[in-house]
Please model this.
Amino acid sequence: MEKLHIISDGKLEVRYSTGRHDLSPVSLDDSYPSMKMGSNCLLIQKNDKNVLIDTGTGLFNPDENKYKIDYPRKLLTGLKDLNITPSDIDIVILTHFHFDHCGGCISEDKEPVFSNAVHYLQSSEIEFAEKDPTLYKYWSVFKDILGKYNLLKIIDGNFNLEKSVKLMLSPGHTAGLQYAKFTINDQNYIFPGDIIPTLWHLNNENIIYLDYDPEALKTAKRNIINDCIEDDSVMIFQHSVRPMMGKLINKGSKIGFQRIYC
Ligand SMILES: [Zn+2]
Model:
């Protein structure tokens, strides 16, 4: 049995200054326009394993002046609706260390939420987080907690996680972001994470303030788009307000999108 579930963790709201293209978050002041984003996690059930990609925000909000987060978050109730408890998760893939992707792996009482899961991280993302302890102040806490229970698996580059589940190292948004390519019931999928988090980001010029290396990101996007078309993959967007996926169509200088309803 192979199954794929897209689980929404709930909405995130940021406000941004007008006239800017990079969507830099400013304070949560009503005079600025707001943008709502979704926060979607994936559960892959394959080879008798439950593989969770990203863990949502959990209880973490690094800056309440910038990010409005609706509580309670929905990842754990989404799993419960599928009759899955956190201890049923065998593998957690953390695409990168931004709080809305990894915050949900640690509980309020500072214990691992997915207590039986090996948590996969890229070594370059750890180096990146350790260079910027202000932005990633929660990382040292996570490392201690996951390390204490021997739940950390640090990898270096592309990695075959399971048969037909691959992790791809792809710097640009952060230094060590990994995204996932996998096959479920003979259909190929790409989950590009924050490299192409919404339909809007398919446009190579649409780069946001958080993207630390825009040129590397543009290259990464081009590679993923080409790969997606070549492999006839379905792309799943992580930050769509509603879970969204579809196929990309090569239209010469433009890329078309054919939505698949889920
Ligand atoms: Zn991010």
